Amino acid sequence: MRALARAISQAEAGHGAELIRRLFDRTGNAITIGLTGPPGVGKSTLSSALVRAARSLGKRVGVVSVDPSSPFSHGALLGDRIRLTEHFTDRDVFIRSMASRGHLGGLAGATADAVLLMDAFGMDVIIIETVGVGQSEIEIAELAQTTIVALQPGSGDSIQVLKAGILEVADIFVINKADHPMANQLKREIRSMMAMLEFGGWVPEVVMTQALLGEGIEELWNAIQKHVAYLRETGEMNVKRSQAFRHQVRQLARGRLERRLEEELSAEMSEDIDPYEAAARVLRVFGFDGGVAETEPEQIRPAPQRATVKGL
Ligand SMILES: Nc1nc2c(ncn2[C@@H]2O[C@H](COP(=O)(O)OP(=O)(O)O)[C@@H](O)[C@H]2O)c(=O)[nH]1
Ligand SMILES: [Mg+2]
């Protein structure tokens, strides 16, 4: 475990390439679960309860907890640690928090490395907890095999879900703090939003939990197992794997390209020419000829979408 901790630190510092190259052969065995949702919804408490469930089945568990909203990282990560303390002495549980800014390939770079390393070091189940701040849910859905979106009643969360397009990436909805009087209403709202979508295969499960009391955790664990079984039986697991792979490659390549691009932009650039011509010149540095209109953004990055809105 100490070796794993060191390996992740190394990757976090941007020196993961050699390690990953050496260990990549040993990956591909773990179940990866993404757990996202607004701050305070109970993600860490849910993680802790899921760790307990997995441990009772003898599984080795890794938890990566990522907070992209750096000004609050310290408090949030501290909260994560408090919520997960009961597992700190368990040698088969590995917990890692990361604020991960400035890593090669940004947030997802360090996270993806940590997941690969935990997998290579023999974790059977890996939970990736991340605060939902728009883009991060989409990223986590690309990285994890099963994506859980946690919501809490009486907070207007359901509206947020629809706005951010999170509905399309959730495999499981968790309504935590289910003892709240608005819990059933939130469930109805989620159901009615789901009714507007056409699902290609998997239809998201909606699970009510009270993470603090461990209520509903068995149902949540079963929903995860059911989704994993679905992925395996339909062959979608391979799609998920290659999606995660491409996600990481994209992040790594993009990180490097963006830095190079910034260098070019900060190099002296004459404003005697128009922006299109300037862009064309910059692109020539990257080996592109013929100006800026050669690529379609949609083709560069397909959104990880399973469901489609009916009638569109
Ligand atoms: N009433 C109630 N409180 C909960 C429940 N689950 C978590 N909490 C509390 O909600 C707060 C935030 O939990 P935490 O797991 O840190 O949320 P995170 O920010 O999403 O990781 C903590 O004070 C938890 O004790 C629950 O099911 N019911
Ligand atoms: Mg947390």
Helices, strands, pairings?
Layout: H1 2-12, H2 17-23, E1 31-37, H3 43-56, E2 61-66, H4 70-84, E3 93-98, H5 106-120, E4 125-131, H6 135-143, E5 146-151, H7 157-164, E6 172-175, H8 183-194, E7 197-199, E8 205-208, H9 217-234, H10 236-266, H11 275-285, H12 297-300, E9 307-309
Parallel strand pairs: 1-4, 1-5, 2-3, 2-4, 5-6, 6-8
Antiparallel strand pairs: 7-9
Bound molecules: guanosine-5'-diphosphate (GDP) and magnesium ion (MG).
Describe the overall structure.
The protein is an alpha/beta fold and 312 residues long. The chain has one domain: P-loop containing nucleotide triphosphate hydrolases (Rossmann fold). Helices cover 50% and strands 15% of the residues. The protein contains twelve helices and nine strands. β5, α7 and β6 form a beta-alpha-beta unit. α3 runs parallel beside α4. Guanosine-5'-diphosphate binds next to α3 and α4.
Brief overview, please?
This protein has helices at residues 2-12, 17-23, 43-56, 70-84, 106-120, 135-143, 157-164, 183-194, 217-234, 236-266, 275-285, 297-300; strands at residues 31-37, 61-66, 93-98, 125-131, 146-151, 172-175, 197-199, 205-208, 307-309.
